[in-house]
TrEMBL record:
This is Aldose 1-epimerase. Its cofactor is Ca(2+). Monomer. Keywords: Calcium. Pfam families: Aldose_epim (PF01263). InterPro entries: Aldose_1/G6P_1-epimerase, Gal_mutarotase_sf_dom, GH-type_carb-bd.
Length: 258
């Protein structure tokens, strides 16, 4: 467990997972063990979305990869690279075509092992700033590697009627619940506001879209994504890929109470 703090803000990190963010004693993060989801945050990489209907196969320029829902990154363990009182850096490395055990097998999946035909390094960096929490994701790897990226944090809800404000548009919790497991698509959006007992601005860089998901009234996942996976059939997930043409590409999520 790592604690970072500055001023009236404190975050808790467990093996790279953000499990708490409090400001003046107000908890913004869904607590593990509470109804709704077994995690507090995770990353979706190198694909977003389910693959079961495509027999867990994803097309790449180097042939077919075997991926379960939201990719194999979540099956790898973070290594702590460095940390201070208000800063922490975690890293995952993957060697191309290395088999990775699928934790969903056999109860929730029929595929035992996953693999990706490209090597990559994935860095997750937390930094507490005066105006909130900045999380930076750094993707580096082989030139030409296709990928999607999604960040999947869950926020604790304290009221019965929270609102997601996007420009002049409001989305209420009932709309998110109605969509169910597919998650509600929010296109071409980099900033939104969660209006609950306290207000929270979520501002992103590099993702371009969000999706909203929950199945209970006590939490909501507000997920920055590079691609909405239900826009295509599962066997065409490759249509949503970005391509790594630089040595490193950065994505930023800022979580700012106000």
């Amino acid at each position: 467990m790592i604690l970072l703090s500055t001023g009236n803000q404190t975050i808790k990190i467990d093996a790279g997972e953000l499990i708490g963010y409090t400001v003046d004693g107000h908890e913004y993060i869904h607590q593990k063990g509470s109804p709704g989801w077994r995690n507090s945050d995770t990353e979706m990489f190198p694909i977003i979305g389910p693959t079961e209907m495509a027999d867990f196969k994803v097309k790449t320029p180097r042939g077919t990869a075997i991926q379960d829902q939201h990719g194999l990154l979540r099956e790898l363990e973070y290594e702590l690279v460095q940390h201070s009182d208000h800063h922490a850096v975690f890293q995952k490395k993957y060697l191309a075509n290395t088999p990775v055990k699928n934790s969903k097998f056999p109860d929730k999946s029929s595929v035992n092992e996953l693999f990706w035909p490209y090597s990559f390094t994935f860095v997750k960096q937390f930094e507490l700033q005066e105006n909130g929490l900045k999380i930076t994701f750094k993707v580096s790897g082989e030139t030409g590697m296709p990928f999607m990226l999604g960040y999947h944090p869950a926020f604790k809800l304290h009221t019965r009627k929270p609102i997601i404000e996007i420009d002049e548009r409001n989305i209420d919790l009932a709309q998110v619940l109605e969509v169910g497991g597919r998650a509600l698509q929010v296109e071409n959006c980099e900033t939104l506001i969660l209006k609950d007992a306290m207000r929270l601005k979520i501002k992103t860089q590099g993702f371009g879209n969000f999706m909203l998901w929950t199945e209970v009234p006590t939490m909501i996942c507000i997920e920055p994504i590079t691609f909405y996976p239900y826009a295509v059939e599962q066997h065409n997930l490759n249509k949503g890929f970005m391509v790594l043409n630089e040595k490193e590409v950065n994505f930023v999520v800022r979580i700012m109470p106000f």
